[in-house]
């Protein structure tokens, strides 16, 4: 991962993590928005840009922090500006480097670094020296550059302390979040992610239809075979969903897209207003598109519409993704109300309308 202060967030700097062949330029800042407004006594405006405008928000923050930092340089009588930081900081931490080396460490383009180096050479702070490779030159400080850094270092240390104090006021680990965001972009860029989301047809949640009976079995067998062994009680439900679930007053819901069932969930009625949420499965090809959430919400809505008394499920703790979904929808782990008919189940959960108060109780 390469942290890029100018492109990624704010360009406010200076936590030093130097390694022999890698410099991690760490961004320190987003909480300055709230901090500055609090100092001025102005409440924050209602935020317009959320996930869709993350680039706009980062650019807004970058411009604000760049202006603030440039004023600090100016007040100190220094001729450099924020746009020079990535080059000066890399040389300060790592010593003489080629332009390629600086670009790699800063995460900037070769062209951008080259232009900054050229400007600092013109200002008399850097020199270009020949290397064994005729195509590259080594960048180093001139005597004037070393004198400049003597004045800059105390300011950077002060900024580092101020930024750390500012970040400590927040509830979240901003630097870790920025790193995770950059890692995600390294794994898969935004263009690829945009294409994957695509312009899919809408997903409908429909009641049981014999046309989708085969999908009810196929989708469930797929995840059961991937993680566990098929048990007799599974086949009893999958081979005869109408007799095992529907005839007892239960319901089966399908997530359907373009006429194809891509997800399924069932409410098995145990009697006296008690329902089991069961046979919950989503086609792996669409598991990142919120199908499971739609099915879960639809099942809960049906339970409430029928004035159900208790809604429970049985699962296994190895199903991490499912557990995250259950937690998000206010399922609370409890002592089992009965012996499970499934050998694989080691976790019993009940849905709570108010999970917080239920957990406290």
Automatic annotation (TrEMBL):
Q: Which UniProt keywords apply?
A: DNA-binding, Transferase
InterPro entries per UniProt: Acyl_CoA_acyltransferase, ArsR-like_HTH, GNAT_dom, HTH_MarR-typ, NAT_camello-type, WH-like_DNA-bd_sf, WH_DNA-bd_sf
Q: Which GO terms describe its molecular function?
A: DNA binding; DNA-binding transcription factor activity; N-acetyltransferase activity
Q: Which SMART domains match?
A: HTH_MARR
> Has UniProt tagged this entry with the keyword Methyltransferase?
no
Annotated coiled-coil positions are none
Does Transferase count among this protein's keywords?
A: yes
Q: Record's Gene3D superfamilies? A: 3.40.630.30, Winged helix-like DNA-binding domain superfamily/Winged helix DNA-binding domain
Please name one Pfam family that this protein belongs to. Acetyltransf_1
Among CDD domains, the record links this protein to: HTH_ARSR (cd00090), NAT_SF (cd04301)
Report the residue ranges that make up the N-acetyltransferase domain in this protein.
203-354
Going by the entry's taxonomy, the superkingdom of the source organism is recorded as: Bacteria
**How is this protein named in the record?**
DNA-binding MarR family transcriptional regulator
Species lineage: Bacteria, Pseudomonadati, Pseudomonadota, Alphaproteobacteria, Kordiimonadales
